[in-house]
Please model this.
Amino acid sequence: MKLLLDTHIILWAFSDDDHLSEKARTLILDRDNTVYYSLISVWELSIKHMLHPDQFVLDPAEFCNLCRASGYYEMPLEESHIITLESLKQKKKVKQHNDPFDRMLIAQAKSEGMTLLTHDRMSKLYEEKCLLYV
Model:
């Protein structure tokens, strides 16, 4: 399985955070799965690091180095990912999901036939098979 990790999942995995579920740990460590990090996560982390360096201590270069050292593959941003944004299906009569980073990660996963591992409750608003809430 090709897994794309949501930003918070990566950070929890790096810090061995208790928020990371056993299911997520198992999927990430399963050698039959190929694990990816997105440049969207790098962009998101960079902004958060600049705004709150005390809360987001990893800078983008450290984040990328840790991802590569963990055996994660880089998922670049492609034109097809941006075009896929318009095809994302949200459940009717639900709150609009306004986080552009999350929407882009979902679009990348959908476009690439990957599974996005996330713990973001907003992901439950989507009717997309590429999402796995862990």
Summary: The beta strands are 2-5, 34-38, 73-75, 115-118, 131-133. The chain has one domain: 6-133.
